[in-house]
Amino acid sequence: MPQPDLLVVQNLSIAFGGLKAVDDMSLTIRRGSVAGLIGPNGAGKSTLFNLIAGYYQPDSGRVMLDGEDITGQPPHLLFGKGLLRTFQIAREFSTLTARENLMMVPAGQSGETWLGALLRPGRVRREERALREKADDILDFLQITSIADLPAGSLSGGQKKLLELGRTMMADPKIIFLDEVGAGVNRTLLYTIADAIRRLNRERGYTFCLVEHDMQFIAELCDEVTCMAQGRLLSRGTAESILSDEAVIEAYLGR
Ligand code: ADP
Ligand code: MG
């Protein structure tokens, strides 16, 4: 029986110099849920994501994925275990097409070395075809088939966000961390992104943890919301209860 808690963060802390960016923070994310993480600027949300995804080593505390202690494991290992966070498409990939950007996602395929390609050309071609089909399926799912052959660098901000989400889908993730995926995106595209997240959650069973400033976005998508302030857990509950919580409102207003 899989445990209901997919990710468990226990008493995680990290300090930069004298500043406790994340301070004794605990968090549980249920399998199959869409969790929201909110809090004023500087609350430690991105740092918490970076700790969970292995970009920073915590000073103390631990992170469990599916019952396994993954504390401090490097991002590429966590990637292989299905724990992903999105990043902006790197500049060196901007001349590749959207489809090629998807096909570039490391998935441990045997065709990735030139030696393998020389030794097993037939297999490489088959795998490349499978990879291309997977990429096309994802473009279709995200309703961005029309941009498949465009260079990533020419896409709009919102299309790039969808492509970033698509890149995580290539890795067959269990849990995806999205840090302000809606920042600087217009309303229409924000709803396209929200819809993609909802469908990935319901139809494909992906678990999400979202940091987002748009409270409507959070309220519509999230089953549970956690609010951080000054590196610490401030409040946790349903979106409705959190957004009407006095302590949360005060933290945002900075009183
Ligand atoms: P949020 O994402 O909630 O806005 P961050 O996690 O980015 O907050 O930052 C939390 C605090 O930690 C801030 O005061 C920020 O300046 C500080 N901080 C974040 N990353 C670093 C770093 N690499 N070095 C020093 N201070 C950092
Ligand atoms: Mg941040």
Automatic annotation (TrEMBL):
One Pfam family in the UniProt entry: BCA_ABC_TP_C
This entry's Gene Ontology molecular function terms read:
ATP binding; ATP hydrolysis activity
SMART domains according to UniProt:
AAA
Instruction: Extract one GO cellular component term from the record.
Output: plasma membrane
Q: Where is the ABC transporter domain?
A: 7-255
What InterPro entries would the database entry show? AAA+_ATPase, ABC_AA/LPS_Transport, ABC_transporter-like_ATP-bd, ABC_transporter-like_CS, BCA_ABC_TP_C, P-loop_NTPase
Q: Does the keyword Cell membrane apply?
A: no
Query: Which keywords does this chain's UniProt record carry?
Result: ATP-binding, Nucleotide-binding, Transport
Transport found in the keyword field = yes
Q: What is this protein called?
A: ABC transporter ATP-binding protein
